Structure formats: C-alpha cells, structure tokens
## 1
Amino acid sequence: MNTFEWLEMSALAEWVGGSMIGYPLMLASHGVGMAIVVGIMFVLNVRLLGGFKQICYSSFNPLLKLAWAGFVLNFVSGCLLFTAQATVFIESTPFLIKVAAIFIAGINAAFLQSLMRQNVERWDAGETVALSVRWMSAASLTLWSTAVIAGRMIAYLDVG
Amino acid sequence: MNEFIEWVSSTALSNWVIGNEWVWPMAETFHFFGLSLLLGGLLLIDMRMIGWFRQINIAATHTLLPFVFIGFGINLITGVLFYFGDPERYTINIAFQIKMVLVLLAGLNALLYYWKLDRDMQHWPPYGDTPMLAKWVGGGSLILWFGVLIFGRLIPYLGTG
C-alpha cells in the first residue's frame, strides 16, 4: 500500500468522502476561500496594472492579510478534499497543474506583498509602479486564472 | 411549471448545451471566474460600506462597480446555459431554489444601494465612518452573495428529487 492509498483509507478521508456533510462542507469552504483569494488578487493586480486609480495602494496591505486568510482556508479544505480521492488526484494532470500554479502564485504574492509594504507610500504620492511589479501582477492574474481553470477541469479530464 | 420545463428543453439553446460536451465545463470555468470578479469587487465595496478598511476613500469604491457587473454578466449568461442544459434537475433542486431567492434578495439590496446610498456617498467623510444604512446594505450584500456561492456549490448534494 503506498502513501496515497493509505491516506485514502484514513479516518479523516472516510469522514470527508463518506459522511453526508464532509465533502459538501469542504467544497463550499473551498469556493468561499477561492472568492476571497482570487477576488482580492484580481482587484489588486488590476490596480497595479493601472486600473481603479482612485483606490489607494496602501489600502491593499490590510486586504492582503484577508487574502492570506482565504488562502489558508483553501489550503486546509483542499488538503481534506485531496485525502478523499488521493490516488485519483495524484494522477490527474489538471490537479497537478493547479497545484503548481498555486505554488508559484503564492510565492509571487508573497514577493508582491513585501514590495507593496516597501513602496505603497511612494506609489500613492505619484511615483510610477516599477515595470517588474507590473509584470508580477500580470503573472499573478495568469497564475490564479490557471488555478481556477485547471481546478474546474479536474472533474472532466483524466478521471476515469 | 412542467410546460415551462418542456419549452426550455425544446429550445435550440438547450439542444446546443446538451449536444456539445465542451459547453458545460467551459461554462463552469467561466462561472467560477465570474464569481471571483463579482465577489472580489464586492468585498472591497461592502467592507468599506460596513466601515472597515478606512484607508479606502468611500466615494472611490464606486469605480469597482464595472468589475462587479462584468462578473455578474458572465455568471448570468453561464447560469442560463446551465439551466437550459438541465432544466428539470435545477427546477426541483432545493439548493438551486434557495440560491435564486438569495440572488433576488441581493438584487433588491443592490437597488437600495443605488437609490439610497450611491449618490450620497460623495458627501460622507471620505476616510471616516459610514451611516447605519450603509453598514446594513454592505453586510447584507456580503451575506447574500456568499450565500449564493455556498448554495450554488451545494446543488449536487442537496435535495435533487
């Protein structure tokens, strides 16, 4: 028995996959967390690319904390959903693409956040946002979109 | 109701959704994308209306509305596609029915925003507290739209006949 088979047989996986409430509760949480993370990141990235000019850059620092709370909610609910069908997910190409996209998007977001902490006051005072930051925003939009699209495709591709 | 379902099933749109297997997954993907736009924009607008995140100029939240409307438009179109692709199952589904009631209430709440708050906002302190009505409308909007999301997610699990 490999790790994923063992995980699938665990009591936790049994609860997520087998109880009336486990799977729907985790799916609903995963949807709520997605709306928070992806929603806030989309607004922030559009702002950094030149949209919503009246919303000041500094207001995104507290919003990013909320985005990370959504990220944690989705990491936890995502791990629990994974246990229920570990052997299927681990061989699903869209799932692996989704995880890779989120991993890179998360690192990108952490760098963006630290750059924002250092620069928001200057940006709000009128200094141009560096091209590298705008590229990171474009990458962020692409990566989060990839995660959403690939996540949705898990149910349709590769699952026999 | 049965006549309505029969009519929906007989439309060219219904046949198109059922006849092309790529339509459903494509529409679902857009539906998730749309909900991220809708709720992303609303999170900022509504939390500011409640009185949080006072770094944001209250009057500036107005500029996020197009973002919200694009998300809503995407989800209205893709939602109609789902309904036409499987009218019988959705019509009798309790989670779907609750979701539609919540969308309706959220729409009425949005009208209240439009009539009572949107135009007055310029006169509120830009970085200060908000009137009580704004707090209720903002809080109500978040509860209703997250309710829409949650009951939408529960459609396959709750009361399908």
## 2
Amino acid sequence: MAIKYNEKVVDHFLHPRNLGRIENPDAEAVVGSPACGDQVAIYLKIDPETEKIEDIKFESFGCASNIATASIITELAKGKTIDEAMDITWKKAVDELGGLPPIKYHCSVLAVDGLRSAIRHYLMKEGRIKPEDLNNDLVRGELYHVIYPPLGIDIVSAKRVKYIGVDDGVVTIDIAFDDEDPYLDEIIHEIEEKVSVLPGVKEIKVNNVGLYE
Amino acid sequence: MERVYFDHCRSTFVDKRVIEEMNIWMTEKYWAPAPFTSTGTEIQEAIEEAQAVWASFFGGKPDEVQFAPSEVVASNITIRGVVESYWKKHDTMPHIITTEIEAGSTVLSVLRKLEKGKLAEVTYLKVDENGLVSPDDVKNAIKDNTAMVVMADVNFMVGTVQDVTAIGKAIKEKKEDVMFVIDATRSLGRTPRWKYADFADVVYTDAHRIHGPKGSSVLWIKGGASISPIIWGSVTYFKITQEKPNVPVIRGGMKALQILLEDYEGKYEKMKNLQKMLFDGMLERIPEVQINGPWPKYRSPSNVCVTFKYIEGEAVQMYFDMNGITVDTGSACANPFLQANHVILALYNDYARAHGSIRLILSWYNTEEDVNRFLDVAPEVVKTLRRISPVAPEIYKK
C-alpha cells in the first residue's frame, strides 16, 4: 500500500505550532543528532507552584513525521502538569495526528523523548531524581520507545527484549533479532541513544542473542 | 500547476515515438519469432535489427547483444554468470573487484550474497573525494584468482564519471583474462560518447532511463567471454539470458536508443547547461550549499546532488513535492532500511551531509523553466527548514 502522510500531519509539518526557543527556560533537552538523521530540541517554562507547563517550544532537524509529531506534542503538553506530560506516549501523539505510516513511527518517538528528557532534567535539577534511582523499570520504560520499523511496534511489546540488568550504572540489555536483520544496527543505536539519557547510566551493553535462541 | 520532474534516475516518461513503435509489435505484428514463415521471420528480423542498433552503440557484434527483463536480472545474470563460469573452469573461489560506491539494489546486493554464500571473495575499492577510482588501485587489487572488475561508469548518486578507458587498460595490462564488467544501467546518454568495446568485456544497461519502456534491459557480452547462464530457459535466441524475446519492449528500447543517438551531443550539452544553471543558481541564492561529488570536472551532465546544511533531506524533498517538484534524497528517513546514502558517506564520512542530501537527475526534456521553478522555490524551502532547525546558526533564525 502506498505510504502517505494525512492532511493533519502535512498541516503540522508546514505550519508547526510552538516553534522556536525560550530564553532562560526552566528545562530543556536536545535528543538525537543530525548524524543520526534527526534531532529535536524542547524548551519548557514550568510554574513551580502548580508544576504546570506554562510554555513549550521546539526545534527540529528531521523529516516531516518528526516535525509534525514535535508540533503536536507541544500542543498536547501545554497547560498540563509535568506528571501528566510524562504520560504522553508516542502512540498518543501519533493518534492525535490521525495516524502515521508504521515505518515512520520511530521518527515520531524522538519528540516524545525530548519532552520526557526535558522534564527529567527539571526533576534532577530539583533533586527529585537521583542517579542511584536507576533500575530495570526505568530502562524498560525507555525501551518502550524503541520501535522495530517493519512491525511498527516497540521492541518490548514485540517481545524482542530478553534481559535487562542494571549493576552500578552498567546497563546490560539482551535483544533477539536475526543477525542479518537490516534494522539491527539502527535498533542497537536507538537503544543506546534512549537509555543513555537516564540518570546514573555509565555504560550500556547491548547483546543480540539471535532470533532462534 | 505542471509537475517538474527531476528524478530521471528512477523513471522517465516513455517517448511518444517509442509508444508508436511498440504499438506496431503489440497490435499489428504481434507474432512470435520463428524460421521460414513470413510472420516468424519478420519478427526474427525485427529482433536482429534491434541487436544491430545496440551493437553499433556498444561497438560489438549484433549476435553479442542479448535482452533481459530488468536491471536486477541483468546484473545477476552477468555477475553470477562470471562466478559460475570461473568455478566450473578452476574449481576454486573467484575474486571480484568493485568499488564501495556501487548501487545497492544491483551490484552490491549481488556481491554481498555471493560473499555470504562463500561463492566469491570481494574487494571494495575506496574512492577519492571526487568519487573516482584510481586505475592503479584496480591494477594493484588484481590477484591470481581475480575473475572480474565490476563497476558503474557513472555513479548513480553523485554523478562521477570514471576513467573507464584507463581502468580497462590497467586491467588488461596486469592480467588479460580478468573481465571488465560495466554496470551502465544509470548512465545511458549521460556519458561522453564512447565505445564500450574499446575497454569493456560486458556491459548491461536499460533504456527506461532514456524514455524507453520499463524492463528494456540490454546486455552486450563480448564473444568468448567466460560467462555461464544462471537462468535456464530457451537457448533459441539468447544463450546467456535465455529469455524468450519480448518483442514490443525490445523494439521500444531500440527506438529510444535511436532517438537518443539522433543528437547525442545536443542532448548532452543541453543537460550540461541546465546543470550549470542549477549549481550556479543554488550557490548564488542559498548560503552554505554543499555540492556532493565532483564539480565541474568528472561529473555526468545529468547529475545534481547537494546538501543544504543544517536541514534534513526528506523534509526538503516533501517541501519540493508540495511545490510540484519531484527530487530524490539520500536521507535515511526516506530509505526503507533507514540507512543514510553509502556514496555520500564514502566520499565525506559525514552522516549529516548524507541525511541532508538532495539529488536531481536531469533528462534532455527538462527545460530552463523547470530549472527556474526549482531555483525560485529552493531558497524559501531552505530558509523555512533552517528556521526550524536546532543546529542552524542564529543568522538563519530571523
């Protein structure tokens, strides 16, 4: 079937909402890199009393899906508390956009990561997350954001994550993919990228145990 | 608004004269080739005429020209045919020399499978910053078990025109029986007018990039070349490809070549002028444009490949598309396996440059108006996306 963008995606791509930077933001995060093909920067103003996101802006080096998702996420997050904003998933963003082609789901994840990462930076600055809080659940939470492109679902739901271990900042992750899978390098790269933003991570070891273990 | 099309590496419209030619062989003279009968021999002669037209283009003999249904099939038949022949003759693993910038869908995918299956060992030669392969490097890579050197004469992504004459000479000087195989699928009409037989042993190409029909692949295999058939079918017409002749497509491909040859130089010069307009226009109107590949020397006249710094290629491609202009990109985002273009990486080792790359492939049917439409739209597209980009310097944010 032809892979197309719907009208809402195109609208957000051509007319991104909340575009730009915030001077002296309460929190910010830059995730991804131009070398990886996409990068998103998120800037937040947070009301310290209500913990509501008063203002949010973004910038993007990325494709149409990436720009459109970043745009819709800023709309979803504005006015929400940081707890509520933490619960915005890539799936929610994609639904709000009226759907994306599954091959593009992974492009939509980065903007969500940017928002979560910015909030996490805020919580760390406030001393509410500490490096020693790193555990399996936090790592698994990040892996929910690594999409296996052919299936358009995350690698945890696809049952491709076989083991997670956390030992003194060293995170070990076993995954199960065919050695010749054309997406393998991309998956490993994305795992490293996502887990590395967690507080307290010193080293990440990703092992592919193969599909037929 | 009429569509401006700059993706002629991937498709061209079929020339009306080609369609008229094909119609004859689909409706009036739809017969099968055969000896003796009037219908059969007329078709035989029609095929032979096509072989003769291609043979004179390649510089070989008519019966050395064979037809295949696609470039994927043509590259498989050629490369695997040489490997098969080598094994039969020597009962040992052949060595193949190629470059790291070949097309992924044809040469590289076949070679990687051969390596995996332990059917051949492969040397991937490095290229310089212009994408050029050095004849000395080719020569030095030849070993006792080298069966062939296979490469494109024009690179599909950045348009580098290889010095195939010097490379062919270097190969034969070192070892006479090493075959020089040219993948010319993307270069027809886009090289200086040379005779392939002067330097190559096998050439395969396709007329669908010169306004011929899809599936009009043609192979020229020099008489006596060591190549075994890998597809078994009918040996009545084509000993290596073993295809039954698809007469309308063969005639359409022939017609497309004849039209190309009517004024080869004129078409070449026309593309060269449009190419210069595009490069000059972009450099003049847009700051920080990186030209990918050689310029102005060593470049095929139909290839324009650039990166607008700080922005991503698929977004650029989408913006042009929405303005009625079709271009291609080397961005991973537009690649089904999410990999950045390997040619740009080989030349510059710069992922951002590969993800941001935009490629235009011209045809002689493109016009100055097409180019002006592109140049009118491009600065605004780049400005808009740089304003969005977190990596663009402050000056682009206003």
